[in-house]
Specification:
Length: about 90
């Protein structure tokens, strides 16, 4: 199954809106979710964060994506099945 992912430019726009710190664990988890197709759980495991912490970041990112969609052309990654963190 092919999964819809954000482009690098869209992720940069999201990072700008989100105020994330590039290189942080939260930024890495968000990148894995938005660009690499990881689930929230797998992104959390890979980034070494709790599922709850990443879940809050992803929910905030989703709200920003929906609000910024007309301006930046951002699209939400599609729902995806669980993906192991060691992919």
């Amino acid at each position: 199954m092919t999964e819809k992912k954000m482009t690098e430019e869209q992720f940069e726009a999201l990072t700008f809106l989100f105020g994330g710190t590039p290189g942080s664990a939260a930024h890495e988890a968000l990148r894995l979710w938005a660009l690499e197709g990881y689930t929230q759980k797998a992104a959390a495991e890979k980034a070494g964060l709790s599922f709850q912490a990443v879940g809050r970041k992803v929910e905030r990112a989703r709200a920003l994506i929906q609000a910024a969609q007309p301006l930046y052309g951002l699209t939400l990654p599609e729902k995806r099945p669980f993906r192991k963190s060691d992919d």
